[in-house]
Amino acid sequence: MARLKLKDLREKSVDELLSQLVELKGELAKLKIDAAKGTLRKDTGRIKYYRRDIARILTILREKGKKL
After folding, report:
1. What is the pLDDT of residue 50?
2. Which residues contact 9 (CB under 8 A, 6 or more apart)?
């Protein structure tokens, strides 16, 4: 998945942001499980990017006034 840009995220609706948030959290959970098992070798840096993308989405949702 490509890195998320703030400009693109701000143009999306709240429903689209929430669905993308759920998708990213699922991917992050899979990566964390693989890291705990020791099967994640090359892609350890993706965990950081998923966490940052989740934080970006949460920030924009808070800016739009959506309570989570």
Report:
1. 94
2. 17, 56, 57, 60
What is the span of the domain harbouring residue 49? 6-63
CA 50 to chain centre: 5
Residue in the structure block whose two tokens are 């950081």: 48
Secondary structure (3-state) at 42:
helix
Average pLDDT, the chain: 88
| CATH number for 13 | 1.10.287
What is the residue type of 29? Answer: A
* Structure-block tokens of residue 34: 């693989």
Helices (H), the chain: 6-11, 14-37, 45-63
Sign of CA dihedral 45, 57, 2, 5: negative
